[in-house]
UniProtKB/TrEMBL annotation:
Keywords, comma-separated and alphabetical: Transferase
Gene3D superfamilies tied to this protein: 3.40.630.30, Winged helix-like DNA-binding domain superfamily/Winged helix DNA-binding domain
SMART domains, per the entry: HTH_MARR (SM00347)
Domain spans labelled N-acetyltransferase: 157-317
InterPro entries in the record: Acyl_CoA_acyltransferase, GNAT_dom, HTH_MarR-typ, NAT_camello-type, WH-like_DNA-bd_sf, WH_DNA-bd_sf
One protein family per Pfam: MarR_2
Superkingdom of origin: Bacteria
Domain HTH marR-type per the UniProt entry, residue ranges: 4-139
Protein name: Transcriptional regulator, MarR family/acetyl transferase, GNAT family
Keyword Cytoplasm: no
Segments forming a coiled coil: none
């Protein structure tokens, strides 16, 4: 048998630490006198009652015999009540009693305080990473247990306009991506940050716009349309510059790039831009396919060193559908 990878070892180590720190090694949990399975049963009933024993067992991933023993103890304690199902006389519906609601309120208070204390030690971005990581890993574990081949990727929302941290985050996405791709460094990052800062001062111009893909409160993609801040031009002279189109790895393969590009081009058409153009680099085949799917065509190609390293730049252009 092959030895596990360092990543697997690290995840297992952190999982054990998480289990211990949350108190699952003890006979009771969450400051109560209840076993972990009983605590989870009360929480699920508080959130989703009425439930049948079978539904509760499926949620808790417990066998029928284990659920029966668990429920018998909670009913005996007076925390859970059973009532006949109005649709099936063979079934009984489970719900919390007044005592059970009081018990689960104390459990929620304990759990919330535990999480809040830990979150105070983390920066906002780290907090979002915790949520996203736990969600993804939990989904993956569940998918493996159920025999699913894959899990559904979370879809970021597309939001228009400035968002705190936008300039730094978009610059960071560009710096990391193009450093790996073509070796761009500090000079490139400075140019991106300066351009974004200058453009942000012109976002109040109705022809200009920026759209952000946001997932778990973090920017994972962006696109901008820049028509400048000049006075009104005749429609035939309006040419929109598509800029800062970038996606984080978390957003790739989710259709987010298509959503961002669609939003930007709809804006171009609405403001009457005769054309929309963008500059990119040769070799970005996936991006080129997306541009061409939206009507862009390669119109120019030239070597350039303006980003600190010589690359082959490409200009793509799309004509307004009504003027093409």
């Amino acid at each position: 048998m092959s030895s596990p990878s360092p990543l697997v070892d690290q995840i297992r180590n952190e999982s054990r630490k998480l289990v211990r720190e949350l108190g699952f090694m003890g006979a009771t949990l969450a400051g109560s006198d209840l076993a972990p399975s009983a605590v989870h049963a009360l929480i699920e009933l508080d959130l989703y009652a009425p439930l049948t024993a079978a539904q509760l067992g499926k949620t808790l991933n417990l066998e029928k015999s284990s659920v029966s023993r668990l429920l018998a103890k909670l009913i005996e304690r007076g925390d859970i009540r059973e009532s006949p199902s109005p649709t099936d006389a063979r079934e009984k519906l489970l719900g919390l009693t007044a005592s059970g609601r009081k018990q689960v309120a104390a459990i929620h208070a304990f759990g919330s305080a535990q999480v809040q204390q830990a979150l105070r030690l983390l920066a906002p971005r780290e907090q979002s990473q915790v949520v996203a990581g736990l969600h993804s890993y939990g989904q993956a574990l569940e998918a493996c247990r159920l025999g699913h081949a894959q899990i559904a990727a979370a879809i970021p929302s597309v939001q228009r306009g400035y968002r705190p941290g936008m300039i730094g985050r978009i610059t960071e996405l560009h710096a990391h991506y193009y450093s790996r791709l073509v070796g761009f460094g500090q000079f490139f990052e400075q140019r991106v940050a300066a351009g974004l800062a200058e453009f942000s001062e012109r976002l109040d111009h109705p022809d200009n716009g920026i759209w952000l893909a946001v997932l778990d409160e973090q920017i994972v993609g962006s696109i901008a349309i820049d028509l400048g801040d000049a006075p009104e031009h005749p429609q035939a002279d309006k040419s929109a510059h598509l800029r800062w189109f970038i996606l984080d790895e978390a957003a790739r393969g989710t259709g987010t790039g298509r959503l961002l590009l669609k939003a930007a081009l709809e804006h171009c058409d609405q403001v009457g831009a005769a054309s929309c153009y963008l500059w990119t680099f040769s070799g970005l085949d996936a991006a080129r396919h997306l541009y061409e799917a939206f009507g862009f065509r390669l119109v120019a190609e030239q070597p350039a060193a303006q980003w600190g390293k010589t690359v082959l730049e490409q200009k793509f252009e799309r004509r307004h559908p009504g003027l093409a």
